[in-house]
Amino acid sequence: MKNNNEQWNEYLANRDVRPKTFTLTLERDRSGNFTVIGNGTRMLNKVNQHAAGWVRVDSRNFISALRNSEITVA
Predict the structure, then answer these.
(1) What whole-number distance in Å separates Cα of residue 25 and Cα of residue 65?
(2) Which one has a higher pLDDT value, 2 or 19?
(3) With a threshold of 0.90, does the pTM exceed it?
(4) Which of 17, 18, 24, 28 is the most buried (most CB within 10 A)?
């Protein structure tokens, strides 16, 4: 999990963090364009093997990190 004094864009750009699971809410308009819904981006924060919870992520910073990374379809 990110530190209190760390911004989301710094955390998402850090290559030393463990792999994370994200969920994102998108809306598609009639012309086929997608829009990210604010407050709809979440990260699964695994505290330990028995406890986990979803944490809000800044959607703008997440999309910026997504643009600057390779996307792999699994």
Answers:
(1) 16
(2) 19
(3) no
(4) 24
